[in-house]
Design goal:
This protein is α/β, with parallel strands linked by helices. It is built from 9 helices and 6 strands. Strands 3-2-1-4-5-6 form a 6-stranded parallel sheet, with helices on both faces. Strand 4, helix 8 and strand 5 form a beta-alpha-beta unit. The longest helix is centred in the middle third of the chain and has 18 residues. The protein starts with 19 loop residues before the first strand and ends in a 5-residue tail after the last helix.
């Protein structure tokens, strides 16, 4: 399944400069960053290797090829990136099949954006097979567009996924609000020229120009996101 863009019709942020909201998935909408690390630990244990917990901050939020490549090099495991990618996706999919906890405030925010017909995209470094499973729980009606990490030539931290999402929604990146939980995702969104709301999950993220840091999605609503477009910082 590939990223598709349904007709948006009159879906515009009337009365506001906000044109679209672009959301990361793991650690932002669903509490799954730990699931990825648990899957990595389990897979490498089966390969005869123990992962150092300090590596967790290296692999979080990035494309799977980068994370897999780093772990293979760090451990010396006898496995290819392609083989490891399949094993990790299998392990992660097994975990979300058993439980898929949403981040606090995620369901409420998605419902509000949908109710006000704000064009919304899910932009993730996870692969399509994973996104499709998660979106079933998040509600496919909440997203006009989804972008998967294995469907772009360059994924986060490059700006390409967010530029693609903005273009797909017919929005100016400078008029898009992005919600992310990792430094890798924040870098991608900022490189695309978007306003960023960071909700750190694993590692701290400092505030910066056009970047607002909040402790939880419970602090984020449509009024807050619209305010980012006019706020002088």
């Amino acid at each position: 399944m590939t990223s598709t863009v349904p007709a948006l019709g009159t879906q515009t942020a009337e009365g506001s400069a906000l044109q679209a909201v672009l959301l990361d998935m793991d650690g932002t909408l669903v509490d799954t960053e730990g699931f990825w690390w648990d899957a990595e630990v389990e897979v490498f244990a089966r390969l005869g290797h123990t992962l150092d917990d300090s590596w967790r901050h290296v692999v979080v939020g990035g494309p799977m090829t980068r994370s897999a490549g780093f772990l293979i090099e760090a451990t010396g495991a006898d496995v290819t990136i392609a083989e490891l990618t399949v094993l990790l996706n299998d392990g992660f999919e097994d975990r979300i099949g058993r439980a898929l906890p949403l981040m606090p405030g995620a369901a409420r925010l998605l419902a509000e954006l949908s109710a006000h017909r704000i064009p919304t995209a899910l932009v993730s470094a996870s692969h399509r097979r994973i996104i499709d499973r998660v979106v079933t729980s998040l509600g496919p009606q909440n997203f006009a567009l989804t972008i998967a990490g294995d469907e772009v030539e360059r994924t986060k931290p490059f700006p390409d996924p967010y530029l693609l999402a903005a273009a797909g929604l017919g929005a100016d990146p400078a008029r898009c609000a992005v919600i992310e939980d990792t430094a890798t995702g924040v870098a991608a969104a900022e490189a695309a020229g978007c306003h960023v709301v960071a909700v750190p999950s694993v590692a701290p993220i400092a505030p910066a120009f056009r970047r607002t840091v909040v402790p939880s999605l419970e602090q984020v609503d449509l009024s807050f996101l619209r305010g980012l477009m006019t706020e002088k910082r």
